[in-house]
Amino acid sequence: MNPGTTLKAARRVSVFDLSQPGLGGSGITDPDFDGEHIPDELSEFATRKNTGLPELSEVDVVRHFTRLSQDTFGVDLGPYPLGSCTMKYNPKRNDAMADLPGFARVHPAQPKDSMPGLWTLFHNLQEHLAEITGMDAFTLQPAAGAHGELTGLLTIRRHFESKKQNRSVILIPDSAHGTNPASAAMSGYICKIIPTTKEGTLDVEAMRSMLDGDVAALMMTNPSTLGLFDPNIEEIAKTLHDNGSLLYYDGANLNALMGLVRPGDMGFDVIHINTHKTLSTPHGGGGPGAGPCGVKAFLEPYLPIPVVTRNDHGEIEAQFDRPLSIGRVKSYFGHVSILIKAYCYILSNGAEGLRMVSENAVLNANYMQSSLSDLLPPVFQQRCMHECLLSGGDLDVDPFDFVKRLIDFGVHPPTLVGAGCVHFSDEYDAAMLIEPTETESLAVLDDMIAQFRKVAREVAVARYMIETAPHTTDVAKIITDEPAFLSMLEADKPCDSKSS
Amino acid sequence: MASLPGYNVLREQDRSHMLEKIGVDSIDQLIDFIPANLRLQQPLDLPVAMSEWQLKSHLTELASQNESADSHVCFLGGGVYDHHIPAVVDTIASRGEFLTAYTPYQPEISQGLLRVLSDFQLVVGRLFDVPVVNCSVYDGATALAESAWMAISASGENRLIVSDTIWPEHLEVLHLYMANRDVEIEMISHDESAGTCDLASLESALQQPAAAVIAQSPNCFGILEDVKTLVQKAHQKDCLAVIGCYPTSLGIIEAPGTHGADIVYAEGQSLGLPLAAGGPYMGMIGTREALIDFLPGRLVGETKDIKGEPALALIKQEREQHVRRHKATSHICSNQALMALRTLVYLSLMGESGLRRVATLSAQKAHYLCAELEKVAGISKSYQGAFFNEFCIDVPVNASKLIEKLRQQGFHAGIECSSHDNSQDRLLIAVTETKSLDTLNHFIQVFTQSLKKLS
User: At the topology level of CATH, where does A93-346 sit?
Assistant: First the structure.
């Protein structure tokens, strides 16, 4: 394989195809150690003859991965209205701050008093998150939203254990993210599913009928995955609390609420935040994100260690000796560089900026809904929050094909059933969840709307263009439920490698 | 004209136009379905919005308060190592296309990212010598916990036999992940002299059925375990063998997969990820073909587009939470894709020969430092087993005082081992390729002087 391949070929070749034995590891040398001789004591273990790793020159690596980046669509390239994922613009200054050597070069096993700047940042961020959400205390440990759920549920479990109550059930709306039931199962809970009313809200009567002494908590996101604010939230909270149960807030949709209304004020006891959604930390191709978990004061003793807080002398420190804590959910102190970016985002926006983030997120989604309603009528005949659920049922073409055609016009497809991280019940199977986010300008929204209309006009005149879309990509349409295989199973056995 | 707050892009005239289109007069009316008593009546109590230069000044000030591997020579390890990260890794990982993409749910516009994840699986598969690798989980600790759950799900047994020489923090996470899932964890002890898993303790534990034997090599004392024997003993009793490893060491150390380990997991930080005060890092999990349905997290595989051309896509999603809900193999939704990218770029730059030299240089320097320190009166190696690049030494003074003394002279000398086995006078010291002979000699000199002053 000639490494000077064309752009089109980049995705078709693996790093093994580009390997030229002898080109790898340039500059890994030391004037005083030969880097060849295995210390005698180690020779019994250091018997590996080869690893089969590919050998590339630095320039080949740079070109290959730069080309692969060009075959990857991110927010930096265009609008990404993937409902429920909040694909907003990620400010570059935040990345630069997280890369400062005073953060990026800190070893987590350094003496605890050797990183006071970090503890101050953690403490400030915890306080800001508490203010934004109306909670009393936060842990920044969880690595992602689902990990925040696990942390929150284990905290709830510990709470009931300390009260000597054996509650084994978590209630979850049928519209919840799949992580909710999966996290509940990992925490040792049984899940019971609450249906959604035809108005798109939680069925309060159904919930009431499921309440008994066994229910530990209800997990809910508000606004829901259907893009709707549940106006019954106070009644739901009161009913649960009267039953001795707690209310868990899945913060996946917090982007609609900042400065407008707070989960803590609605009656939620535990919350996680997806920093990679609401607080604009980059999604990174699927991670890393971060999932800080906030609680009301009565749950604070159970938060995972370490807890960053003020000690009796008013100094901020990381505390590890917390007898009531659930324990440790991950190593060290959480996804620190991600948390730094979230902190920077809050500071750059301020209170007014964050309120306008949420106002504009809601405004943009409603503008999309209004502008497309003749073509894609809203599933629920009401105004939405930060994302709109539109029906593709009148399209006379499979919505799956419809959204693939948007790719040709520079728009990332919205979320459909079975695509993305949300779950829809069967009755919404032609629906699409569109979340434009607040960082798309009116001009971009109008352009997106025009593209939707352009595709809709094609249904009558050039249907095949939709059914075989996309056409502007190097690869053609991929049907993901077609048989696929794990290519590594077909690869050379590692130790038979030719590039030894 | 005043600038718009934050990153907002709607001008006042845009907002008016849009409200009109929607058919409402104001934002308040737009969201009038939110009960009025819940609406915030005053602004959030947050600091005044900062300009970019104010932000930079504030963050630079906070960063300057921290000691780091730049201000102090870093001999800290404990699963996280100060290996060199080539500039190319940062350059590629800062590409906006990679940085601001999400999980490749739309494969047609994600072939570049899918190729990265697919190659990551392949390259790590070679490093571990196993046929199947996922796209990563959060970190080494959660990789251990997920691997343990895989073993339980696959075997139908609910008992784990776990070596007490696994990183203590990883064990804490394992215990928490298993706490409410009807799992019994039996810890096996270590040989105090060799610093390795006690085989008698293992054999005794293996008298009862178990899902898996779980061990780590190099272990929490830096000592290499006899992985081959551990795997054999597990297999003789029909247990799965789950082995944690230090990926950099695999440049020269025999891979766990070669010894027959059924599940191999690792903390991936050493492969091009910044120290970053603890994260984000990356958990790696590899396994045999037969256990693929029990793997957590994303998997990328090859399929065909409608023209019959090969293409990449996420595969076997039926294991995952967005399809299988409470019966999923794990709750994990994300993976550490950006970290997987860094690792792939790092391993592509190193290659067969480079990783071998990084591993060998680290080992050579660690063994040099250990041998020189052993010559100092009062210092002895804590364990007799072979080590890779990290070792424990016993010192004749209070370890935390020694660490403090060396810190004042510009060294983060090591990790006090008291959390491992209650030794008050033990240090765990890690050496990477980046420490020059001069630095090592200077460290030995300062170490010796500090010991004298404290004695």
Answer: Aspartate Aminotransferase; domain 2 (3.40.640)
